[in-house]
Amino acid sequence: MREEDLDWDVYHIIVMNGHVTMDELLELSNQPGDVIGDSVARLERRCLVARTGTGVRVLSVQESIARCQLQHCMDDRLFMEHGVIKVRPESKRDPR
After folding, report:
1. What is the pLDDT of residues 64-81, one digit of tens each?
2. Per-residue confidence at 32, pLDDT binned at 50, 70, 90?
3. Is the pTM here over 0.85, yes or no?
4. CA pair distance 20, 14, nearest whole angstrom
5. Domain boundaries, the chain
6. CATH code for the part of the protein at 1-59
């Protein structure tokens, strides 16, 4: 199976369930753990899903746009945590 097809299937499993644990995702997809881990990592890089403490959830459109903008932002001081855009505390530059 091509990576794109697998990612599409994994994304739809997550969408249908809202939030899934990795164990549930493995069971529902019938794929090996490393394959699913790689797929979730690609979906996360594409700003479509987010890992939580217990599994994976789908990002809202607003979260997806914000994460994508932060991912491609040249200012590495900014990051997102629990849906909130924050400035890294160790940053020495003026936030203005």
Report:
1. 888 877 777 666 677 777
2. very high
3. no
4. 6
5. 1-59, 60-96
6. 1.10.10.10
